[in-house]
Write a structure and sequence with these properties.
alpha/beta; transferase; globular; eight-stranded mixed β-sheet; kinase; single chain; Polyphosphate kinase; ten-stranded mixed β-sheet; PP_kinase; 18 helices; 702 residues
Length: 702
């Protein structure tokens, strides 16, 4: 492995999260949205430690070094480098938070702590504490416990130290003990997750006050501990993050749902991988806790600010005027596809592309609801990866069963951190008579596809969709994704073959149209890249345009390097991890890479191959990562409709032209904003205008 040939995956991910932090720091972003980006940054970091840091730690503890799998760096060195970067990023995030809170004061929004409570606010806070908070508190006195209770993963705790009064000092002529010698009681208070973190107080004139739940508890420490005679009491926040890897039971007598349920419960027993504490905590309290918890040098120990679990800022209340938040955009209809009419009737004539959140996710729900009610529909097959908490998708499928349709659902119970929600829906659908499939041993099912069989003129005709995103109403409002609605019988016949594979795992079908992981995606992509190399050598039009969440598969990166050396020009838009090093002479000088981080999470995967002037265009559920190529079931779907091909190429170019929110990915890893002399173009806003214009053009035709 040559030096600088690849960027380490974990370090690249940290740079992606730094781009999220840039949004929190960006003064052009509305203030409350900046707070929410801080929440996203913190939430991302929590998941990173649960999964990636935990994996590297296991490699290190196994004594394997991990140099080959970690991009040329040893596991222990990588753990140290990650901790160093995270400490610096956390420090930046605290400064950003302070700056935002100060600026909110200009808009009469004040975030106060327990020392800033006014007399006029005391009665409200006391009542709120007694009615809502006090009954929900879990308070643990540690001194008399031989072992510390198992702390919940990523829950926030107040570590309380009480210095007790000296009973001897009450007698005449007694020597009063110093604070150091007096009895100390250590207590943990778990901050309830069932109560909103931000408590909005009644307005006072034009002023809006907010207190964090943590500080509301601090304000009432005396109420909590009034049975003790103490001299002083202090409370500082701590948080522990645990290894989130699922250990699946091999017991053959248990159902798959039972195994996953047990594994999720066992996750609370995972080994700690990160310990975050308030840097102002007393050293004796810190040492006491670390000793009790068994925290050692192989864990990431992060001194932080007064407040942890800043992911809660993702749900910061909507306060103040419109200038404090992004203007909401109404999702647009798809030109030529009317929600009030029959979608099947229109899809029978031509393919349609849905691009959320610019266009309405209601089309997906309507498609399934129509299938549930249509007497001609005989069966529905669908893959599910992540569902919304209240899912119209699930209710539509249950509705279909009640109307006598045969419904088959491949549900992925191992969708990281959504296991519990998926298990609940799986059990609910199973009880209603849905035929559930739980995937393929050793593979996650990450594809997003649906096939509906409808009886027309005594023959079965298929309708369906292939998507880049989850069938989730909540994320469809903030994730950009693509869904192709089609009645192309050749494509849908092959989607049906994927469902056959779920049922009979040893049977691997051949595909003429779809690229399907784990069997054919890698080899198909290599052939497509090779075709561009051959065309470039022959002087034919050659080029590759990719839009991905992540690019980390070394063998595919090597193939792109080979294409670059052959003169193939490449434009890559990679939101997150990018292990490819662009712009290096004699290796990747023909490859340019940008990342766009903005209001919406960029989630679609688009592959465009120039193909000698007759472009091949795909949408896909698969990133270019080893897991997507070899360890997941993924579907990449060719786009045959010329108007949709044109739309995807045009929207790609709009994203590529972004000079407001695009960052240049380079070997420097400095997240430099792309700036040029062209008029400012913010691609996500420009895409909404693009679809608005398409709609107006369609109206003019009518």
């Amino acid at each position: 492995m040559e030096e600088n040939q690849y960027i380490n995956r974990e370090l690249s991910w940290l740079q992606f999260n730094a781009r999220v932090l840039q949004e929190a720091a960006d003064k052009t972003v509305p203030l409350i949205e900046r707070l929410r980006f801080l929440g996203i940054f913190s939430n991302n970091l929590d998941e990173f430690f649960k999964v990636r840091y935990a994996t590297i730690k296991r490699i290190d503890l196994a004594g394997k070094g991990g140099k080959n799998v970690l991009g040329g760096i040893k596991a222990n060195q990588l753990l140290e480098e990650i901790t160093e970067i995270v400490i610096e990023q956390q420090s930046q995030s605290l400064k950003i938070l302070d700056s935002i809170q100060n600026k909110l004061k200009d808009h009469n929004i004040f975030i106060i702590n327990e020392k800033q409570v006014a007399k006029s606010q005391q009665a409200f806070l006391k009542n709120f504490f007694l009615q809502k908070v006090s009954p929900a508190l879990v308070t643990i006195i540690l001194n008399d416990l031989e072992e510390l209770p198992r702390l919940k993963d990523s829950a926030a705790y107040l570590a309380v130290k009480m210095i007790m009064k000296d009973p001897v000092s009450k007698r005449p002529n007694s020597n009063v003990l110093s604070n150091q010698a007096r009895e100390k009681k250590y207590v943990l208070i778990e901050i309830p997750r069932s109560i909103e973190r931000f408590v909005v107080l009644p307005k006072e004139g034009d002023r809006q006050y907010i207190i964090l739940l943590d500080d509301l508890i601090r304000y009432h420490l005396h109420s909590i501990f009034n049975i003790f005679e103490y001299e002083s009491v202090t409370a500082h926040m701590i948080k522990i993050t645990r290894d989130a890897e699922l250990d699946i039971d091999s017991d053959l007598s248990k159902s798959f749902i039972e195994k996953i349920s047990a594994s999720v419960k066992d996750r609370i027993e995972g080994e700690p991988v990160r310990f975050v504490y308030d840097m102002n905590i007393d050293q004796d309290t810190l040492q006491y806790l670390m000793s009790k918890m068994g925290i050692d040098a192989t864990d990431s120990i992060i001194p932080g600010g007064r407040y942890h679990n800043r992911r809660d800022y993702m749900n910061f209340p909507s306060l103040g005027g419109e200038e404090l938040q992004y203007k909401p955009y109404e999702p647009l209809p798809i030109p030529g596809l009317i929600l009030q009419g029959s979608l099947f009737k229109e899809i029978a004539k031509k393919d349609f592309l849905l691009h959320t959140p610019y266009q309405s996710f209601s089309y997906t729900v309507k498609f399934l609801r129509e299938a549930a009610l249509d007497p001609a529909v005989k069966s529905i097959k669908i893959t599910i990866y992540r569902l919304a908490k209240i899912s119209h998708i699930a209710s539509s499928l249950i509705n279909a069963v009640k109307n006598g349709k045969k419904v088959t659902v491949q549900i992925e119970l191992r969708a990281r951190f959504d296991e519990v929600a998926n298990i609940n829906y799986a059990e609910q659908m199973q009880q209603e008579g849905v035929n559930l499939i739980f995937g393929v041993k050793g593979l996650k099912v990450h594809s997003k596809a649906c096939v509906i069989e409808r009886l027309e003129n005594e023959k079965i005709k298929r309708y369906g969709f292939i998507s880049t995103g989850n069938l989730n109403e909540s994320t469809a409002r903030v994730y950009s994704d693509l869904t192709l609605f089609t009645s192309n019988q050749s494509i849908l016949k092959e989607v049906n073959k994927v469902f056959d594979f779920f049922e009979v795992n040893y049977k691997v079908s051949r595909y003429k149209h779809l690229l399907v992981s784990p069997h054919y995606t890698r080899s198909s992509l290599v052939k497509l890249i090779q075709a561009e190399i051959d065309n470039a050598k022959e002087g034919k039009p050659a080029g590759i345009r990719l839009k991905l969440n992540s690019l980390s598969d070394y063998s595919l990166i090597d193939k792109l390097y080979e294409a670059s050396r052959a003169g193939v020009k490449m434009k890559l838009i990679v939101r997150g991890i990018c292990c490819l090093v662009p712009g290096v002479q004699a290796m990747s000088e023909n490859i340019k890479v940008i990342s766009v981080v903005d209001k919406y999470l960029e989630h679609p995967r688009i592959y465009i191959f120039e193909n000698g002037g007759n472009p091949k265009v795909y949408i896909s559920s698969a990133d270019w990562m080893t897991r997507n190529m070899d360890y997941r079931v993924e579907i990449s779907c060719p786009i045959y409709d010329k108007s949709i091909q044109k739309e995807l190429i045009e929207t790609f170019e709009i994203c590529w032209s972004d000079n407001v929110k695009a960052r240049v990915i380079s070997i420097k890893q400095d997240n430099a904003y792309r700036r040029n002399n062209k008029p400012p173009l913010r691609s996500q806003f420009a895409l909404y205008d693009y679809y608005l214009q398409k709609l107006e053009t369609e109206k003019e035709k009518v």
